[in-house]
Amino acid sequence: MKKIVVWIAIALVVGVVGFLALKPAGGLKNVDAAGVTAAQAKGAQVVDVRSGGEFELGHIPGAINVPVDGLQAAAASWDRNATYVVYCATGARSAAAVATMQSMGFKNIDHFDAGIQAWTGKLESGTQKTTQKIETSGKPVLVEFYTDS
Amino acid sequence: MKPLVEELKKQYTDKVEFRVLNVETDAEAVKLAEKLGVAYVPTFVFVNTDGAVSKTVVGEQTKQQLTAALGLLK
Question: What is the predicted ipTM?
Answer without folding.
Answer: 0.95
